[in-house]
Amino acid sequence: MLHFRFAGTGHVGVGSIVDMSNSQVAALVGADVVLVANGGLGSAFDDLELNRALLERHGVKVRGVIINKVMPEKEAMMRDYFGRLLEGRWGVPLLGVVPNLPLLAKPTLGDIEGVPRRLQPWVCTRGCHPMCPRLQLHVAEAVHLLNCT
């Protein structure tokens, strides 16, 4: 099976002014979507719900959600709460919670130079392929989960 990845910018309504929003493009190419929202309980879910409704209108499936820029001290709470909320209301998984860290917001070349050496691959537990490495990064894990389901 071939997997293609597309990246849209902004919310799923971007492009509506020319009658070609991100949600319409996703529908045209038959792409499922992973929604990404910035941290905060109420505001994040409100943004996600607006995006989900427009995707639903165009027949696009939401495969999961990533919550970005979460205060590190709130990461566990957001993971727990959003995990239950998304599964309960939409039947989709929370794929990751990305902490709001200075390194992620404004990386320098020095910050990212050693990243490949610092990654510690671990074996896939989903059984999709014996050589399938998984990296202990929130977003990398989310992409892997999408490809292995």
Helix and strand topology:
Blueprint: H1 22-29, E1 33-38, H2 41-57, E2 62-70, H3 75-89, E3 94-99, H4 102-105, H5 109-113, H6 115-118, E4 122-123, E5 133-134, H7 138-148
Parallel strand pairs: 1-2, 2-3
Antiparallel strand pairs: 4-5
Textual characterization of the structure:
- With 149 residues, the chain is an alpha/beta fold.
- The chain has one domain.
- Helices cover 43% and strands 17% of the residues.
- The chain has seven helices and five strands.
- The chain has helices at 22-29, 41-57, 75-89, 102-105, 109-113, 115-118, 138-148; strands at 33-38, 62-70, 94-99, 122-123, 133-134.
- A three-stranded parallel beta sheet has the order 1-2-3, with helices on both faces. Strands 4-5 form a two-stranded antiparallel ribbon.
- Helix 3 (75-89) links the parallel strand 2 and strand 3 (94-99).
- It starts with 21 loop residues before the first helix and ends with a helix.
Order of helices and strands: HEHEHEHHHEEH
Total of domains: 1
Strand content: 15-25%
Mean pLDDT: 75
SS field, number of helical segments: 7
Shape: globular
Question: How many beta-strand segments?
Answer: 5
Uncertain runs with pLDDT below 50, 5 residues or more? 117-147
Taking the alpha carbons of the first and last residues, their distance comes to: 12 Å
Q: What is the CA-based Rg, rounded? A: 16 Å
What structural class should be given to the helix and strand makeup? alpha/beta
Q: How many strands, which pairing sense, and closed or not: the largest β-sheet?
A: 3 strands, parallel
Share of residues in helices: 40-55%
